[in-house]
Amino acid sequence: MHTGTPCDDGSVPYLVAAIVAAAAAAVGWLARPLAPDPDERQRVSLAVNAVDRELAANLELTTMFDQTKQAVTLENGEFARHRETLERSARPAAAAVAALYQRMSAAESAMERRGPANSLRPEDRQLIEAWEGDAREVQRSLRAALDARPLAGLAAVSARLYGRFARH
What gap in Å lies between CA 60 and CA 65, rounded to an integer? Predict the structure, then answer.
């Protein structure tokens, strides 16, 4: 007596195809563009604008220093206030801003050091000019963070799955 093996009726390929199609549909649904949260987008916009204004004011102060050779104190309150928001939602720009603000006291100290006839040492001038150039670059990266496109593809899948299973 011959008993047939399970699934001899040819239904296995259809079952596999159905499973593959369901998996592809699920991944496709998860990979659709992930729209940013409007409230978070508002917070990021406020943070970027505040830090951008502060950097613009600091660049104006360094311009005044270049003209008058009188040391200035650079502003740093807005970055401290908005640091968490930037690190959460604009990570690459936040890292650049943090590095710039860490070097701020060195630039201020370089402005205060004087040589003969109120002159600056070449290494101090280079440090101040490098800080100014980096501040301009950081401003550009902050502004670019506002133009970030919504996550799509594998990044959206990862963000959705991480958000769904994250422990709070």
Answer: 9
Token pair of 7 as six digits? 């699934």
CB 53 within 8 A of CB 79: no
Q: What angle do CA 87, 88, 90 make, to 5 degrees?
A: 65
| Residue 130, Cβ density class (10 Å: 0-12 exposed, 13-18 middle, ≥19 buried) | middle
Q: In whole angstroms, what is the distance from residue 41 CA to residue 162 CA?
A: 19
31-35, 66-70, 122-126, 160-164 — most confident range: 122-126
Q: How many CA atoms lie within 13 A of 167 on its CB side?
A: 0
The two tokens of residue 97 are 């801003």
pTM: 0.71
